[in-house]
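Same chain as my last thread, 223 residues:
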Amino acid sequence: MPSAADLTAVLLTARLALVTTVLLLLIATPIAWWLARSPSRLKSVVGAIVTLPLVLPPAVIGFYLLVLLGPEGPLGKMTQQLGLGLLPFTFSGLVVASVIYSMPFVVQPIQQAFAAMGERPMEAAATLRASPLNAFLTVALPLARPGFITAAVLGFAHTVGEFGVVLMIGGNIPGKTQVLSMAIYNHVEALEYQSAHWLAGGMLCFSFVVLLLLYSRGWNRRP
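reply #2:
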């Protein structure tokens, strides 16, 4: 059976995934809208930057975040000047790392939903004298709802399964930065296979249910 420390890791992971998903939806929506509709030549550059976490090893992302957010890094100096302290090895640091690492899993489904929507709905809203913001809120967002659902589910699930990035930026501090994947690693390292089975089996079932919902509901399809 899972120990109290394991349950703490599960709750911390759920909290991290929830906070990360909410932040990602807020950050990714304007980025996805711009990528789907902007004719700018910078779109390819921005798209490549957003997609980088898909091809970069998690340890590389974690290492550079550790450098940037560390005491000598530019972002680390800024957070200290703002009175926020240093973010590495804190829950806030885990959130920053998770947002960056899971970004493409949230941006891409929303971007595809906006792109599949086409121009006609927004043009029709404009003929009815709807402001751009009103048209976005009342027309674009409802039409892109399947993309948002897919993005939220994938962002949450991907955050739950993180290991390399959160290990680099958060360490493995029980009750503070030790997430579920690290708890499994600790059990395996200590040859505690039964405890590892409980946690790993739970993650396996969770991942299967997530994918089953996506495919059975058709949320992974474009609108």
